[in-house]
From TrEMBL:
Protein name as catalogued: Mevalonate kinase
Alphabetical GO biological process terms: isopentenyl diphosphate biosynthetic process, mevalonate pathway
Organism placement in taxonomy: Archaea, Methanobacteriati, Methanobacteriota, Stenosarchaea group, Methanomicrobia
Pathway where this protein functions: Isoprenoid biosynthesis; isopentenyl diphosphate biosynthesis via mevalonate pathway; isopentenyl diphosphate from (R)-mevalonate: step 1/3
NCBIfam families (alphabetical): mevalon_kin (TIGR00549), PRK03926.1 (NF003036)
Root EC class: transferase
Length: 304
């Protein structure tokens, strides 16, 4: 029986979450935490993971179910068995939904020989996220497809970052849709205050682009910390995130900030390579789950 296994990476933001929803610049990096989807032909649609076994199920597997339905419009899918494994915590701001969406699209694309290119996959993935979340930036699906460090919305590839990356997970689930909606309401109520904050976050990304090229990690860190202050101002931080952020900074990180929608989920710290273990220990001590990882050039790929 023919099987295809594809994987796609999660992501972190250096700068720009929330502002990117309104067309501002952001810098996003694919990280070496991956979601793997194995696809093989079957008589019926079967989806399985640690969440359980089911058919098309928009409650348990909204993204995978939507991919199967969408790909069925492109090719004749009579039945398919999809087995999902993931390193990426769900609902944590690391792009878990984008990774499973992109890995599933590519697995079906190759199994059924649909001929979709990377740009097609990223675009299709974004349309599915948008349908499910209501409002979704194309960033997560694009970075998960292409890998590397990407400046959006220009989709410009930047130099790879080779310092330490430590992710701290609060273990608290957060709803991207709810947080994006909360910021939209603030923006509507106080446009003269919130609009300049969002455009400043965009300007931080533009300034940071030059520092990424020069590998000036301490300067990138200063800007990430400023970005965090602005995210706090628009109400997307939380006490749990703040604990992890300050623990990481005090342990020697260049910077620490929310990554993703906020409200829970994860923060990310940039560290000297020699300090990564120390920063991870500090995050663990204050109740977070620490993951030491690195930026990866590899987007969606076939696993052999």
């Amino acid at each position: 029986m023919q099987k295809i296994t594809c994987s796609a990476p999660g992501k972190i933001y250096l700068f720009g979450e929330h502002a990117v929803v309104y067309g501002e610049s952001a810098i996003c990096c694919a990280v070496d935490l991956r979601t793997q989807v194995q696809a093989c032909l079957s008589d019926t649609v079967q989806i399985s993971s640690v969440l359980g076994d089911t058919g098309i199920d928009h409650d348990r597997y909204p993204y995978v179910s939507s991919v199967v339905e969408k790909m069925s419009e492109i090719t004749d899918i009579k039945g398919i068995k999809l087995c999902i494994k993931s390193d990426i915590p769900v609902g944590s701001g690391l792009g878990s939904s984008a990774a499973v969406t992109i890995a599933t699209i590519q697995a079906l694309n190759l199994l059924f020989e649909c001929g979709l290119g990377a740009e097609d996959i990223a675009t299709l993935g974004h349309s599915i996220e948008k349908k499910i979340q209501g409002v979704a930036s194309s960033t997560d699906t694009y970075v998960s497809t292409m890998g590397g460090v990407v400046m959006v919305p220009l989709k410009k590839k930047l130099h790879i970052i080779d310092c330490g990356i430590v992710i701290g997970n609060t273990g608290k689930f957060s709803s991207t849709r709810q947080l994006v909606s909360n910021v939209a309401q603030l923006k509507k109520n106080y446009p003269k205050i919130i609009d300049p904050i969002l455009s400043t976050i965009g300007r931080i990304s533009l300034t940071g682009e030059k520092m990424v090229a020069k590998k000036e990690y301490e300067s990138i860190g200063v800007l990430m910390n400023i970005n965090q202050g602005l995210l706090d101002a628009i109400g997307v931080s939380s006490p749990e995130l703040a604990d992890l952020i300050y623990a990481a900074r005090n342990a020697g990180a260049y910077s620490a900030k929310i990554t993703g929608a906020g409200g829970g989920g994860c923060m990310v710290a940039l560290t000297p390579l020699s300090e990564a273990e120390q920063v991870a220990s500090a995050i663990t001590r204050v109740g977070g789950k620490a993951i030491i990882t690195k930026v990866t050039e590899h987007g969606v790929r076939v696993e052999h």
